[in-house]
Design goal:
This protein is α/β, with parallel strands linked by helices. Among the domains are: about 160 residues, CBS-domain, CATH 3.10.580; about 130 residues, CBS-domain (Roll). The protein is about 30% helix and about 15% strand. The chain contains 14 helices and ten strands. Strands 1-2-3 form a three-stranded mixed beta sheet. Strands 8-9-10 form a three-stranded mixed beta sheet. The radius of gyration is 34 Å and the shape is globular. The N terminus and C terminus are likely disordered. Belongs to the 5'-AMP-activated protein kinase gamma subunit family. GO terms for molecular function: AMP binding; protein kinase binding; protein kinase regulator activity. One of its GO terms (cellular component) is cytoplasm. Pfam families: CBS. This is CBS domain-containing protein.
Length: about 400
Amino acid sequence: MDESETTKPTTTTTAASNPNSRADEPPNAPKPRVALGPGPGPAMSSVSSPLAARAGHELPFVQPSSYLRPSSRSHTIPPVATPMSPIDEEQMQGLQGMRDFLRVRTSYDVLPLSFRLIILDNDLLIKKSLNILIQNGIVSAPLWDSHQSKFAGILTATDYINLIQYYCQFPEHIDNLDKFPLSSLREIEKAIGVLPIETVSVHPSRPLYEACSRMLKTRARRIPLVDIDNETGRETVVSVITQYRILKFIAVNTEQYTSLLKKTVREIGLGTYTDLRTGSMTQSVLDIINMMVTSNISAVPIVDKNNVVLNVFEAIDVIPIIKTGVVEELQINVGEALSKRGEDFGGIFTCQEDDRLDSIFITLRQSRVHRLVVIDDNWHLKGVISLSDILKYVLFYGDDGDYFPSS
């Protein structure tokens, strides 16, 4: 609006000259114009619009507040970002350094100098596969489709839990369980309505960041490295890396960054603290297995009547229990089942909500950790931190980009 428009004269009525004005109205506010009766010219409306032109004036009345209302074409000014505290800056610096490390290192770099790899053919009977895992002291193995010469997934303790569920739902098929090959796991999963076996894989020369993203997207706890021969186009399973091995690799090689993670578990909201599933020492293994399947979890904290943590029943604890047969061992209680653990069992790892993330990485660097049970000073159960929780925080916290990049 130019200056000639703003200096047009207008006539106003002050509160002092108008005995009918209200005390709570601004003195210059336009008053309703009431029609008094017939007169020359068109009849006036009972209440005039604030923008309607008044007789004798070229421009309408304008209230001062109308200048303060934002125009529909105006742009909203973005809020000013609150500066980060020094501890937040250090935390983000540490996370960014770890992410840059994961983007320049490959999955192949995680492998130790020497290792063994056991691959099971899809035509192998499920019962024989269990014996192979027990004899070799392993809890998982890649599967191979010899008919198509390609990677066919990975066998884990969860598959044996699914087999137990299948027996519970279809007891009439118990006599056929010894005849099921590994390839029938797909049909078993469909029959009991659970997620299929993990078939996600990654090329060993791809960035480690990509392997981590795929694992988190598919909720896989391990991922096979599958290479492809350039001449024949056939696949070759190189090895399998787990979330634990990846986090240990990070902890060992990026201590300058993990030492910057000074915020506590409570401050970053790490872990699960609601809807926790727990069990007791006197419950049957079958009850715990049913709980794990229905809740889609891989471990159940074992507590007493006061919610004090006594132990943790994990999916891999099923393997030594059923080695002599699926049916006979399912009704034993949890306490007896946990006593069957091997001598190499690493123990239960705990932490408190006031523990810092850098201390957790020290634990990962020094011990074989699969999860952390969060307790208070009196060992009452507060929550559970999985390796997936830690890996997800490292990769994605504060990142607005694509969490799960395509291959």
